[in-house]
Design brief:
By secondary structure, the chain is mainly α. The chain has helices at 2-31, 33-97, 103-127, 141-146. The protein contains 4 helices and no strands.
Amino acid sequence: MPDDDKTDRIKDSAQQIWLAGLGAFAKMQQEGSKAFEALVKDGLGVQKKTQQAAEETLSQAQARMAGFASEFGNRAAGGWGKLESIFEDRVARALEKLGMPSAEDVAALQARVEALEAQLKRNDGAMRPARAPRKTAARHPAEAAAKPSRRRKPPADA
């Protein structure tokens, strides 16, 4: 008989739940569109608040990501600068071991060559007397072709 009591209690509970649902349905029919409109209004309010919170969170996340990206870019640029400097130093040492002159050595030599060229031009102008230009008769191209050259031809044995 104890099983019958449990079954009866479950049936009574289910009956009460069913009746509560019917009562809610009847009340909704009585109140009708007023309750529905109130629920829609409340839903819109919650949606606006949620959307604002989501937009604020998104803008904060974007600002943080922009800061991270900037910081990462600065760090990467510094790292590449250090790496480039290390590479340049190693290449310079290797070239020095091979006996290659440095950029400074080449620049110094170039400056010395330019100074020597300038000195030669000054000395050359001071040592040469001015000469009169040599006069030569211009030949007509047809005459030049007709007259044989006076130059000696080298022997065929040579």
